[in-house]
Design goal:
single chain; about 150 residues; alpha+beta; 2 domains; 6-stranded mixed β-sheet; about 30% helix; about 30% strand; elongated
Amino acid sequence: MVKWIFRLLLIGVVGLFGYVIFETYQKGYLSIPDMPDGAYVFSYKAGMRGIVLDAEVLDPSIADMPRFLRRIAFANPERSYFAVPFRVAPWMQTAWSTCTAPTEEERVGYAEEMPEDLKQNLAYSRFEAVCRITVDGEVVVRGLLYSVPKL
């Protein structure tokens, strides 16, 4: 009987390990490109992935962790992050983008071009970053990163 319990426990542990590896692969954490110091990552199941440069964080000790653990949500536990992805070619949807803080012109420009229903959904949120991908020397905006305080 103990042998069967051990086997079931072993199957459960192997299954859980496999699930964690699959989720890590699906979110792209196994293919993170090289990151500069002080950079943080985010990844969503919908495909938006990015490396946030020069982010304002409350816990800078996260920057010393391995790159797949340097997540922006870990560095700022009081904030929830979400992305507004733009329509791009299907092969770009899972590419890692580089995200930087928006300039004042970008803040105004994206706020003016945004549909009214999206503006309402983004009320009281903080515009954190603009995410870009470089394709054959041309810069393509992949999406925007916003955050809200956890209530």
